[in-house]
Amino acid sequence: MKLYDYKQAPNPRRVRIFMAEKGIEIETIQINLMKGEQRSESYRKINPMGEVPALVLDNGTCIAQTNAICRYLEDIYPENPLYGRNSEERALVESQNHLIHMNGILAGGEAFRNSSPNFKNRAISGPHAYAQIPELAERGLQRVDNLFEDLDRHFAEQQFLVGDYFSVADITAFCTIGFIRWVNKTIPGHCSNLKRWHDEIASRPSSKA
Ligand SMILES: N[C@@H](CCC(=O)N[C@@H](CS)C(=O)NCC(=O)O)C(=O)O
User: Fold this and answer.
1) Measuring CA to CA, which residue among 181, 4, 167 is closest to residue 82?
2) 98 shares its domain with 190
3) How many whole angstroms separate alpha carbon 49 and alpha carbon 51?
4) What integer best gives the mean pLDDT of the chain?
5) pLDDT tens readout for residues 62-83
């Protein structure tokens, strides 16, 4: 297998942390997004979406969505499950992971991609051109503020996103908070529960992956 990666980008980081938690090693190839390598003809032959991460299996199949890659790895390396240990936990992990994707990754992306001069006409990742909409950048920032408050309330009650079970949803949230720094937003000082959770995840060796 080969993992197409870009060290600085949030979605490939989710896969790298997931792999580190499970002790999985996969040959990794860097695609430099700043140089536009994701849009090159050669890379688009591998992943027509022109995005990273992408996992190419030994039979040539390309799995090109972060959650699908992690699910595939969970399936073939079931030890130390990160998608839940029973039906109820799997449903709760799914729910939290989806919420963080919607209200975190997409909100941060909305703020970042609609404001950064480097993303002019690339306000949505993928093969199609979309103009920036400044109002969406503004709304993205509001959504990020709400995410911090919602997570802070959540972590007042629970150790991780799903009770005392560390899961893929925590990885998604951790990478989201790293990504949100790109729009100059960090955990507000009064969000002490969120800070406690963040420090705990940052202290895991996988967080350096
Ligand atoms: N839906 C995809 C999104 C992946 C994505 O947005 N990747 C970004 C890096 S974090 C990318 O490749 N962007 C390329 C671009 O903006 O041209 C997933 O969940 O994997």
Assistant:
1) 167
2) yes
3) 5
4) 98
5) 999 999 999 999 999 999 999 9
Q: At which of 16, 43, 76 does a domain end?
A: 76
Whether the CB-CB separation of 107 and 143 falls below 8 Å is answered with: yes
Which pLDDT value is given to residue 204?
98
The residue from 49, 76, 103 where one domain ends is: 76
Dihedral sign, CA of 116, 118, 124, 125?
negative
CA atoms within 13 A on the CB side of 45: 3
C-beta separation of 56 from 1 below 8 A: yes
Confidence band for 189, pLDDT divided at 50, 70 and 90 = very high
Minimum-distance ligand 1 atom for the alpha carbon of 6: 9
Ligand 1 environment, Cβ below 6 A: 9-11, 33, 38, 50-52, 65-66, 122, 125
Ligand 1 centre from 14 Cα, in Å? 12
**Residue 54: which CATH number?**
3.40.30.10
Range of 111's domain? 87-204
Query: Do 154 and 98 lie in a common domain?
Result: yes
pLDDT in tens, 95-127: 999 999 999 999 999 999 999 999 999 999 999
Instruction: State the distance from the centre of ligand 1 to the C-alpha of 126, rounded, in angstroms.
Output: 7
**Whose CA is closest to 96, among 82, 108, 80, 109?**
82
**Band of the pLDDT at 208, cuts 50, 70, 90?**
very high
When pLDDT is cut at 50, 70 and 90, the band that residue 166 belongs to is very high
